Amino acid sequence: MKNRYLILLPEYTLGGLEAQMRQIIYSLEEKHILADVCILNTLKKGKNSLLDCDRKRLRFVDFFELHMYHRSEYQERESIREYVIKNMERMYRVVLIFNQTYTPLIPFFRENGISTVYSERSDGNRTCNDEICRLSVKECDILCANSFCAARKMELEFARKIRVIPNGKEYRERLGYTRKKQIKNILVPCRIAPIKNLGIVVDMAFAHADRSFVVHFVGGKDYVNYAKSLEDKVKNYGIGDKVFFTGYKEFMEEEYFWADLVILPSFIEGASNVVLEAYQYGRPIIVSDIESERELVTDDRLRFSTESAEELFKCIEYVEKLSDAKFDWEVDVIVVTAISYFNAVKDELKRKWDGDIISLEDVIYEEQAR
Question: Is the pLDDT of residue 364 over 70?
Answer without folding.
Answer: no
